Amino acid sequence: MRKITMTLSFVFISIILVGCQQSNDKKLDNEVSNTDKLETQAEVTEGDFTYRLVTEKAEYSENEPIKIYAELEYTGDREEIEIFHAASPFYFPMVEITRNYEIEYGMDMPLLSTTLVKGEPLRGEYVGSGGYSSEDKNEYKEFMKRVMNKEFPAGHYVVNGIADFDIKVSEGTELEEKYELEAQVGFSVQ
């Protein structure tokens, strides 16, 4: 009787695991098709700031440079405003959804300031990203080496762009207001 119970338990658990795997596969397929719907330009407004994220093309060839940039524009009442940020206010982390690989975007973290003039966008371009550790699988390492060398392998990419900065609430105070504007664009490499 115990053998039958163990066998039935094993079969039941196997069926559940196979069902879960099929569910995950469907989710990945949906994500790929959703990338096809992503735009090459996105714009977000929060308070007195407009953030734009752009990839110049929806489809690149494997040997073609990937052109991505972000803009931050001040639209408030003043003529100019000072923002505080790391090496840049712009971050370009990505996900290659065919392989489900995250492409991190590291940055130096000094405290810098930039003056934004009303109606004149500040622009920052994607200059490369990625990284890996010695524990990562060889396939992942090879993929990241190519990305770090700005040679994107074929796949579907989603850029999860961020503009991250602070402003002083009023002159002469230490109080700051934090902004983290996010937008998403997508592109494919064939």
Rg (C-alpha, Å): 22 Å
User: Quick one: biggest sheet?
Assistant: 6 strands, mixed
Helix content: 10-25%
Strand content: 35-45%
Tell me the structural class: alpha+beta
The CATH class of the largest domain: Mainly Beta
Give the overall pLDDT as a whole number.
84
How would the global form be characterised? elongated
At the fourth level of CATH, the homologous superfamily of the largest domain is ApaG domain
What is the topological layout?
Layout: H1 2-37, E1 41-46, E2 49-55, E3 59-60, E4 68-74, E5 80-85, E6 90-91, E7 94-96, E8 101-103, E9 112-117, E10 122-125, H2 138-148, E11 155-168, E12 176-189
Parallel strand pairs: 3-12
Antiparallel strand pairs: 1-2, 2-4, 4-10, 5-9, 6-11, 7-8, 7-11, 11-12
Description:
The chain is α+β, with helices and mostly antiparallel strands and 190 residues long. It has 2 domains: 1-37; 38-189, Immunoglobulin-like. Helices cover 25% and strands 39% of the residues. The chain is built from 2 helices and 12 strands; from the N terminus they run αββββββββββαββ. It has helices at 2-37, 138-148; strands at residues 41-46, 49-55, 59-60, 68-74, 80-85, 90-91, 94-96, 101-103, 112-117, 122-125, 155-168, 176-189. The strands form 3 sheets. Strands 3, 6, 7, 8, 11 and 12 form a 6-stranded mixed sheet that branches. It is elongated and about 55 Å long. The termini are far apart. Mean pLDDT is 84; it is low at 1-35.
